[in-house]
Amino acid sequence: MDLYFSPLACSMATRIVFYEAGAEARFIEVDTHTQRTSDGVDFRAVNPLGMVPVLRTDEGALIRENVAVLQYVADAYPDAGLAPRGRLERARLQQWIAFTNTELHKAAFVPLLDPKAPEGAKAYALEKSARPLAVLDEHLRDREFLLDAFSVADAYLATILNWTVAAPVPLAQWPAVSAYLARMRARPATARAMAEETPLYLREQARRKAEARQLPV
Amino acid sequence: MDLYFSPLACSMATRIVFYEAGAEARFIEVDTHTQRTSDGVDFRAVNPLGMVPVLRTDEGALIRENVAVLQYVADAYPDAGLAPRGRLERARLQQWIAFTNTELHKAAFVPLLDPKAPEGAKAYALEKSARPLAVLDEHLRDREFLLDAFSVADAYLATILNWTVAAPVPLAQWPAVSAYLARMRARPATARAMAEETPLYLREQARRKAEARQLPV
After folding, report:
1. Hey, which of A74, A147, B2, B63 has its CA 20 to 30 A from A45?
2. B119 contacts in A (CB within 8 Å)?
3. Complex ipTM, two decimals?
4. How far apart are CA A214 and CA A208, in angstroms?
């Protein structure tokens, strides 16, 4: 499978899932500002929304949205047990992926991390993130993972919580969430994904800075 | 099954799914302002996030988030064919539910419909909704449904697009989306759900207005 990703973006969740499954994939880097991919293609032809992740299956089908991509990859490696198969447990998995997707990723972090978002949008996002983070803290108080065992929902949540440093969201207010993030980061698959994507992120930032200097003011 | 809902909120998607399946459920109304349910319970005990929908399964388990609830109900009535079962087609279903959930529902309509959201948040939301709506318009140009046949993703998308009148989002710019919404509203299950929830919505609004008048200024 091919995974279109941007360094340290939400697409890192799927990279973590591949590594947790002991599987490999072809990773194609996307600069979401220029919409160019590392193999020289206009990314909008792959995803008109211009967003990562996009997965290309072995049959050539394109799938986007973390909710879909994470479960598709988990189900491709059932022996790794990264997505429960029972109806109720699968619903719970989807519930936590959706929670991360909407309350944290979309409602909070997109405006907080967007340099073009107006102050009103950032203040609103920060205010709206407090309740979901409190609910998450309560849920994680006596749990190691979102469900009974590590799942793709944890790979996604850890990837998003990772952004609290840059946003910045004062995670220390939610000690169970902070401790959870530290635990997830210590897992070999997450550590490997971060070690691989961090230099790519720094290179991307340096390239963007250099390009900005060359633009007429 | 029991469905906790608020009139004309995103929970209407699940009511539509029950009706499309020819099934019934117990519908429990929630006032999300007061967090009281029509059976006299504090809704935060049901969902600490205070949001509908919440589904109580026949076994008494609580499931929240549309992504999870819609698929759970569809899979409870497999003969109705409201959620494809093949791996790739299920991924596509999840992709469109997630798109509706994040790009439209959470990123656009929550700030646009929230009287407490600052102007900056509303302007940002409206600006960010243009690209997803254009992508959706392109997708629906020669299609009757999001997938090959009617699915729970359509029940959800129609419910959310219904809010464009109140938001207001000028849907006429996207003629394929406008025509799709008209088609979905004409389906008997959607028409029945709207006919049942509209008077409840008007009653809720009247009650809130009356309560606001009684508050000290």
Report:
1. A74
2. 120
3. 0.94
4. 10
